[in-house]
């Protein structure tokens, strides 16, 4: 097995994005004087869900890509999937604060999660084809 250097690099970038989202939630809690939950504040709920959505999808997606890369998978696929994943994870929280049913909401929030799901699915299929 090869060490997944490319995935490790992008995992570090995604780790910084996650730390930023965490700080964003903490700042929202401090500003709104909310110790637990969202305190009924819509903006804080959106921050929390942006953070949670990242936490729900990124680790498994990174693992699938790392396993694919470590098994000797195509560097082009690995690089492409990871670039799109970073872009998708930046777009998603932007879309969470877009006006309801606006083009920005559909493009950023919808596009971010759809791209993330597509990347996870493609990585899983590539891994299955590689090791199956």
Short description:
By secondary structure, the protein is an all-alpha fold. The protein has four helices and no strands.
Q: How would you describe this protein?
A:
The chain has 132 residues and is mainly alpha-helical. The protein is built from 4 helices and no strands. It has helices at residues 5-32, 42-70, 75-96, 103-131. The mean pLDDT is 95.
Could you list some keywords that capture this structure?
mainly alpha; 82% helix; 4 helices; 0% strand; 132 residues
Helix content percent band: over 70%
Number of distinct helices: 4
Largest sheet: none
Chain-averaged pLDDT: 95
Low-confidence stretches: none
Order of helices and strands: HHHH
**Structural category:** mainly alpha
- The overall strand count is 0
Kindly report how far apart the N and C termini lie. Answer: 16 Å
The value of Rg in angstroms is 16 Å
As a percent range, the share of strand residues is: under 5%
